[in-house]
Amino acid sequence: xxxxxxxxxxxxxxxxxxxxxxxxxxxxxxxxxxxxxxxxxxxxxxxxxxxxxxxxxxxxxxxxxxxxxxxxxxxxxxxxxxxxxxxxxxxxxxxxxxxxxxxxxxxxxxxxxxxxxxxxxxxxxxxxxxxxxxxxxxxxxxxxxxxxxxxxxxxxxxxxxxxxxxxxxxxxxxxxxxxxxxxxxxxxxxxxxxxxxxxxxxxxxxxxxxxxxxxxxxxxxxxxxxxxxxxxxxxxxxxxxxxxxxxxxxxxxxxxxxxxxxxxxxxxxxxxxxxxxxxxxxxxxxxxxxxxxxxxxxxxxxxxxxxxxxxxxxxxxxxxxxxxxxxxxxxxx
Length: 333
Prior knowledge:
This protein is of the alpha+beta class. It has helices spanning 28-35, 41-49, 84-89, 96-103, 169-180, 257-264, 273-276, 317-326; strands spanning 15-18, 54-55, 58-59, 71-74, 106-109, 113-118, 150-151, 160-166, 185-193, 200-204, 207-209, 219-221, 230-239, 243-250, 293-301, 308-312.
């Protein structure tokens, strides 16, 4: 038998790769997409769930942000980037129809960032049973750029409104820093069932994933182990004690933060059966089974380093019809 280490078949080995300076603040799942575009979202999620991907020796999640110098553990079989030719072959993956659809969502575009008006019902990222999503349509937003556009934050599938897309790696890093350093002001509109206990206030309830939940994104208030979650709210208008329209400013960016906070306040978002149960549904309202949460306005430092990026968008038709049905006024918000 040969003792030559190059002879015969070799088993893949665990390796690590250092995060570079231009990758600061990139989400871990985006980092993998950049280095290993042939690794599917589902395959990466499985590696993360089983602890095979680690950052500096610690278990990690796809939403974690990487920093320069950190060592990312690469499981066996995910230790080599595909050759340039393979990357090029995966570039043209969006259909003309999907490209036209996502381009129609663009409300602002410059050399650094694209702002979309995401419709309700369209997922931002793929997952189990989700074939169509914004992330899979981003090829349609190159507009002649060599780099593939990339996500820097997300909205729930049934939430509508403003979504930022970075056009370069540097823009992605700066946008991530703005979100992480809370330099971004986000205003959401929500129609809720019932009314808040006071006209204006702050909800300070830490959130964590609900243990054992089949839905991996199901959240709950957890005073002991939860991550800090802050939401400022103000009542815009109300229809007696039956329903209200709220302005919501999330000061942190936890999963499902606004939905959980509204439910915990005793006024679940209309149509949010996940956190409000049957109480979140109003049979007498035509659109009462659809989620009424809309990312209305964004303000943050422009990723070019010059000035501010501001965007605002009207809510989708089902939201507007419910506003009209209740006779809500939106003046001054």
